Amino acid sequence: MFSPSANNWIDKYFSYVDRGDIVLADSIHLNGGTNDKNDEILHFFANHTGLSFGSPLRLIFSEELNFNLTKEEKLKVLLFEALIVVYIQESNKPFNTDDFIACLCRFYTPDKVNNLYPWLSVFYSDKPKNALERLFSKRVKIKSTFNESNFWLNHLSNSFVYQDVILFSAYLRGKAKGFLSFSESYALQILQAIVFAAKLDGVIDKVEIRLIKYFISSAGISEKTEGIIDDLISNKNAKITDCDFQKSNKLFSYYVFDMATFMLETTNQTYTNEHAYHLELGKLLNLDEQERKSSISQCKAFIIESSQNIELLTKSTETKLVYSNLSKRYLKILGRGKDQFLQEIKESKELMTLIKKSTHTELTSKEKEIVKAQFKDIVKTMPSIAIFLIPGGSLLLPFILKLVPDMMPSAFKSNEIEKKD
Q1: d(CA 377, CA 404)
Q2: Are 237 and 111 contained in the same domain?
Q3: Which end of the chain is more exposed for a tag (fewer CB within 10 A), N or C?
Q4: DSSP H helical segments within 235-316, as ranges?
């Protein structure tokens, strides 16, 4: 079993590589011979897989193994595989696992952890692979305070993880000292392009504000940079030509253009000045006509293929409220069957009533049998067993285990590497 939500998944992944189940393409297939060609190859992979937009459609090397992964797990593995692609492209020697892991740790390890990226502190107190696993878990998620109106962001994937890949490429080419080198300035430029795309008709509507909030949270920017974006949103006289877009990193230019196009395409509107915006932004990013057309077509293809699965565009208030009543700790255990599980929970009103009652009153034998039967029905709707919590639910876990002791989750057994005979 392969579970990127459990420890040791990187070792497990490479065990598939060692057995030949996962084949890492060599530089002959991934290296275009020049930086520009390599960027074109990586740009295609990013859009084709959905990595560019933080909504994974497919994996790069391990897609044929059909791992039963949640969207979060899939994004985590996809990010990891894209980093492998970059390393293979820029390396002049056969792929070596230990060298790759060491290189990746050096890229992410900061000289000093600041308040903006506290999750990087994992590298000061952990083994390399364990530190990377923890880091990837934090990178693919968005965090928002429970009391904020945008708490729903906690249940979406980080759309800016592809920035890690772009920065890793720059790092290997000697144009960046590490992850922290340009992460803030890159995020600012991407957000600026997104805001100007939203302002194309002169008005930023609710859907566009929702998207912008999502992107700001994904970027993990400082309050100062967020203030710049807020000012840009309210400034009716701002011009895109006032933005200082860097032009030296073609891969980054593609990304900025892709994100702006994504904003335009997901509003379901057609603007008369859309072509002019693409033309102007493309010039500011040093993208020629063919590169602009390629980027637009790839973005449209992604949206057409994944429009029904982009969580940002399909999350409902009802689902948000259900999520808010679940312990964060057990969301991953709900994992692959959470949609069916949540629907079953909503329909099992009697079960919920009895569970709440059990937190302060002893249930009768008949009531306990009802809970046991309905809980088993819920578990049957899921590919993995779930233990869940509700408000005041610290008493629920031992209660459920007392009723159905054979239902202890086995997630801790994931990623055990089978030994050869």
Answers
A1: 12
A2: no
A3: C
A4: 250-265, 274-284, 289-306, 311-314
Question: Can you give 120-189 as a three-state secondary structure string?
Answer: HHHHHCCCHHHHHHHHHHHHCECCCCCCCCCHHHHHCECCCCHHHHHHHHHHHCCCCCCCCCCHHHHHHH
Where among 125, 149, 172 does a domain terminate? 172
Nearest to 229 by CA among 268, 184, 265: 184
Q: In this structure, are 79 and 201 located in the same domain?
A: no
Residue keyed to tokens 């998207």 = 211
Residue 4 lies in a domain: no
pLDDT in tens, the chain (421 residues): 899 988 899 999 999 999 999 999 776 678 777 888 899 989 999 999 999 988 898 999 999 998 999 888 999 999 999 999 999 999 878 899 999 999 999 999 865 444 445 545 555 456 889 889 999 998 998 765 444 444 444 446 788 999 999 999 999 999 998 888 888 999 999 999 999 998 887 888 877 887 888 888 888 888 999 999 999 999 989 999 999 898 889 999 999 999 999 888 776 556 678 888 999 999 999 999 999 999 988 888 888 777 666 555 554 433 333 333 333 333 444 444 445 445 555 555 566 677 666 656 777 878 777 777 766 665 554 433 344 434 433 344 444 444 444 444 444 446 767 655 4
Per the CB < 8 A criterion, the answer to whether 146 and 131 are in contact is no
Separation between Cα atoms, residue 397 and residue 276, nearest integer Å: 58
Question: Which residue is it, tokens 């302002």?
Answer: 199
* DSSP per-residue codes, 295-344: HHHHHHHHHHHHTTT-HHHH--HHHHHHHHTS-GGGHHHHGGGHHHHHHH
| C-beta of residue 256 within 8 angstroms of C-beta of residue 265 | no
* Shared domain check, 206 and 282: yes
Q: Please choose, from the candidates 137, 2, 132, 135, the residue with its C-alpha nearest in 3D space to the C-alpha of residue 63.
A: 2
Token representation of residue 51: 């990595």
Nearest alpha carbon to residue 136 among 99, 172, 181, 179: 179
Last residue of a domain, one of 172, 191, 220: 172
The answer to whether residues 406 and 374 belong to one domain is yes
The pair phi, psi for residue 43, each rounded to 5°, is -60, -40
Residues 387/330, Cβ–Cβ less than 8 Å? yes
Check whether residue 126 and residue 49 sit in a common domain: yes
Domain range enclosing 195: 183-314
326-335 as b/e, with b when 16 or more CB fall inside 10 Å? bbeebbbbbb
